[in-house]
Amino acid sequence: MPNDTKFAPRWDANGLITGVVTDATTREVLMVAHLNAEALSLTRSTGFAHFWSRSRGKLWKKGEESGNTLRVIELRVDCDQDALLMICEPAGPACHTGARSCFYRAVSSQDGDTTLTVIS
């Protein structure tokens, strides 16, 4: 296991890095989003998750409209430094639909059809 000590994020061609958000208490995956350098800097300086919206083309603080913020407890980086694990304390649902997690549907196949089933 390499013992790299320098944090050097590896941004993709669009200047983004993937952030996987988990609940600090339950370890449940809550959401996946992308960060640019400014979002990462704001996340680190404020202690609250900030992201880059690819669809809206702008920076946003999670919960800026809903109040459902994510307080960052710990940031981890993967072995290639091209993805972040964001261990957070959520203040309300993480998903914009109101679900606790964005991963609230299971994908299944039956008789050649692929369907989504809401899980709790």
Description:
The chain is mostly beta strands and 120 residues long. The protein has one domain: Ubiquitin-like (UB roll) (Roll), CATH 3.10.20. It has 1 helix and 8 strands; from the N terminus they run E-E-H-E-E-E-E-E-E. The chain has one helix at 37-46, and strands spanning 17-23, 29-35, 50-53, 58-61, 70-77, 83-90, 105-110, 113-118. The strands form 3 sheets. The protein has a 4-stranded mixed β-sheet, covered by helices on one side. It has a two-stranded antiparallel ribbon with strand order 3-4. The chain starts with 16 loop residues before the first strand and ends with a strand.
- Under the CATH scheme, the architecture is Roll
End-to-end Cα distance, whole Å, is 37 Å
Query: What is the makeup of the main sheet?
Result: 4 strands, mixed
In the residues, how many domains can be counted?
Answer: 1
Number of helices: 1
Radius of gyration: 16 Å
Order of helices and strands: EEHEEEEEE
Shape, per Cα inertia axes: globular
- In CATH, the topology is named Ubiquitin-like (UB roll)
Report strand order across the widest sheet.
Answer: 2-1-6-5
Low-confidence sequence ranges: none
Query: Total strand count, please?
Result: 8
Can you identify the CATH superfamily?
A: Phosphoribosyl-AMP cyclohydrolase
Share of helical residues: under 10%
What fraction of residues sit in β-strands? 35-45%
Overall mean pLDDT stands at 95
Q: What structural category arises from helix and sheet content? A: mainly beta
> What is the C-level CATH assignment?
Alpha Beta
